[in-house]
Amino acid sequence: MKKMLYRWFDERLKLRPIKIALLDEAIPGGASWVYIFGSITLFFFLLQMITGMFLAIYYSPSIEHAHESIRYIMEEVEFGSFVRGLHHWGASGMMVMIGLHMLQVFLYGAYKRPRELMWLVGVVLFIITLAFGFSGYLLPWDQRAYWATQVGINIVGTLPLVGTSLLRIIRGGQDLGAMTLNRFFALHTLFLPWLLILLVTLHLFILRRVGPAGPWDKARAARIREPFWPKQVAMDAVGILIAFMIVAGLAVWFPAPLSDPANPTDTTFNPIPEWFFLFYYQLLKYFSGPWEVVGTLILPSLFFLILFFLPWLDRRKDRRPISRRFFFVGGGLFLTMVFTLIAISIRDISSLPTLSPSVLRGKAVYHELDCAACHRIHGAGEAFGPDLSYIGELRSRDWFIQHFKDPQSLVPDSMMPAYGLEEQALHDLTDYMLSLKHEIDR
Ligand code: HEC
After folding, report:
1. Ligand 1 pocket at CB < 6 A
2. Among 12, 80, 149, 279, which residue's beta carbon has the most beta carbons within 10 A?
3. What is the pLDDT of residues 222-269, one digit of tens each?
């Protein structure tokens, strides 16, 4: 049966040359687990495409509806939370795999002549993936998205000469707003995917032309030669399966976050970028004032220049680690720095003041009683009564309690209703009012 089917298709499609072209590639030194990361990266890209297409069915790229459409996906749509979880964790998975893939290529010196072109295309693919991460982060249009993107975009604004015009192009106007969201959506779902598909094809085309580099041990490479099919394919498949199970598990047990809707007037929100930008975010903190360009322009340019021209910097033919000590030490130092900065950043972020339970309960009371019908906090709500954004700096605890019990006793002609709150609600609401300051207390 299988034979018959094969023959039927083979007669019409001439399958043999395809098999030779796709699967019979000889791998010097034989199949190995260290070669699986490229395939897993490619798998993650496909996963992002598929989950992304399903998310696009419900997602609406407008500032009025973006947040609500994501909430709808998370709460109403069948498997919505799972699909968004796959997309969310898949992005991280893709980053990790690209990192490991690049590390492997680096350790093996696989970018050396004659594979410089494959490396160059790979570096561009890496940059495109970062752009995917950055543009995708804004799309839910929640507080995290808004403020992290604000920080990211402002970096562009500090560039000398081109900064301001570039800033305007990226934002599509004066502010981060409706136009920006549209731009990022188009970038994320149309421009970048096509570009990536094109360059991945080129990357693989070059791979088929020059062949894989194999181990640095020449004797071993010459002695053992194994075709891509079936052993390497099987190893890649196992890697892909494990990677998928991890991401699926994360999607089930740790749903992708969605914070409050973006509020451009609430400047107290602490920006938290995606983890793969954290080390850079942290790095920027060490360069302020006139030194800012070092962080925003000089160091990134240096990094990408070195990355691009690595095959020409590390040009000795010998690929063994012993003859490449300088680059190993350099790479090791760089990675140490990256992970140290990530650790510092995570420590800083997790020690940010969090709202106490009574403040959170008070916030809930505020919403329940619809105080926003008369009051405004950071731009949200009506301006009938006084703006309460920083009211905690103006009044004392006793004053609030007295005022809530009987507004007219303090402000004789007050229009504010007396709510007759229970003791607990009264104190929670007061704690919430007291927390409304420029700096949040711990
Ligand atoms: C019907 C509209 C209305 C509603 C609803 C309302 N307020 Fe007021 N509120 C006012 C007005 C008008 C004032 C100004 C007069 C005064 O201070 O009593 C005021 C004053 C205040 C003040 C004092 C501000 C200052 O600067 O002195 C606080 C605090 C306050 N409101 C909190 C609340 C909270 C919390 C709620 C919900 C439980 C609420 N208000 C509901 C109209 C309202």
Report:
1. 366, 369, 371, 373-375, 384-386, 388, 391, 394, 403, 407, 411, 414-417, 419, 429, 433
2. 149
3. 898 899 989 999 999 999 999 999 999 999 999 999 988 898 877 667
Distance (Å) of CA 347 to CA 148, 162, 350, 363, 398: 18, 35, 5, 27, 36
pLDDT in tens, 73-126: 999 999 999 999 999 999 999 999 999 999 999 999 999 999 999 999 999 999
Ligand 1 nearest atom to the CA of residue 394, by list position: 26
Q: Which of 409, 413, 416, 433 to mutate to test the pocket of ligand 1 (most atoms within 8 A of CB)?
A: 416
Q: Is the pLDDT of residue 371 over 60?
A: yes
What pTM was estimated for this model as a whole? 0.79
Ligand 1 geometric centre to CA of 359 (Å): 18
| DSSP result, 324-359 | GHHHHHHHHHHHHHHHHHHHHHHHHHHTS----HHH
Phi, psi dihedrals of residue 313, rounded to the nearest 5°: -85, -45
Question: What is the model's pLDDT at position 439?
Answer: 64
Kindly write down the DSSP assignment for every residue of 73-93, as one continuous string: HHHTSTTHHHHHHHHHHHHHH
For ligand 1, atom 32: residue with the closest CA = 371
The angle, 0 to 180 degrees and rounded to 10, between the axes of the packed helices 116-138 and 192-210 is 160
Unique residue bearing structure tokens 């790095």: 283
Going from the N-terminus, what domains does the chain have, and what CATH number goes with each?
23-263 (1.20.810.10), 357-435 (1.10.760.10)
